[in-house]
Amino acid sequence: MGLSKKIAIVGLGYVGLPLARLFATKHSVIGFDINTSRIASLKSGTDTTFEVDDETLQKVLLDSPSDSNGLYCTSDLNDIATCNYYIITVPTPVDKNNRPDLTPLYKSSETVGSVLKKGDIVIYESTVYPGVTEEECVPVLERISGLKFNVDFFAGYSPERINPGDKEHTVEKILKVTSGSTPEIGQKVDDLYQSVITAGTHLAPTIKVAEAAKVIENSQRDINIAFVNELAKIFNLMNIDTQAVLKAAGTKWNFLPFKPGLVGGHCIGVDPYYLAQRAQEFGYHPEIILAGRRLNDSMGDYVASQIVKLMIKKGISVNGASLLMLGITFKENCPDVRNTKIVDVIAALKDYGITVTIYDPLANPNEVKHEYGLETTTSMPNVKFDAVVLGVSHSAFLKMDLSQLQNSNSIIYDVKGVLGDKVDGRL
Question: Of 127, 159, 222, 233, which sits most exposed with the smallest number of CB within 10 A?
């Protein structure tokens, strides 16, 4: 392979676009995505995920494929045929039974395999269980390309650590784990990322080690959140303020500052299932990991029950009551609605006969309708409600005067625990 690096980023979502933009400051980058509307938006200089601001994106955009530094976005497979590094950043979801769905990885591997050449390196960033890169993806690359692994082409794995909506911990400021299918390739992959990651890199000894490191990062966080969620349930029964307890306990230097909440999104709420699936294939049933998942998945129903209890105590007739849900995205200041657990709360509230209005200025109503069949609005409702629930702590919500949305006998419930004491209840 020649000295010049031409990089293809396959998948231009929350992970791929920030990475492509960063690499484009030092290298020639082709960003590829099968979503033609996404490509059109990016070519116009706008990122609808808000991960890269328009001015920053426009600084690196190229009008045509080039060997000079910059980013050219395309949905034409021929445009990535001249690249020698292929970085795959597609989603790795679970199906309705919480089993890993590797379809996006298989499809993207077929795409890259069709243009793969001798000497090329394919790097995966998608979260997977240990073994997926070499045992699932590489065979697809071999079959489609007709080339032999570790002879004609090579592989690497560098798990993404993007935190959607976080403008402080951006991709270049987060230390990157790297790995390669041979020691020499591992060094090449590490050098590639070192060229743009100012926080530095950690070269793992094997691809499987890097895969395992990624999948336990979010599993650990999931378990810790499950612990404080269970504490919240216990302390609510005791009529003790959970937030006050955590604040007091947090004065010890080694207490971990986790907060109770809904665990959604495409990382923490998904990754533990990948590790659990792999463990079960080896004959081990992971008790703690799955117990944490079960508890966190139960929190939507729990939050709804707490809201209903507060309404009953205040004499509000639950059946037919009106409720405003503030936010439906999976986290604050982010338009992503994938695997949001707010929908669990909404479903449970509707089961009680409550009429729910969903207001989220960041969520795309068409995406919400497509994913969940729910109607949302991006405009502030001009009516009053029996209950107002802060489901997502968007900055815009924290500046609102919620009393203007209340009638004379309504409640405010704070799922995120950010509104202080001027609420009727919080998780």
Answer: 233
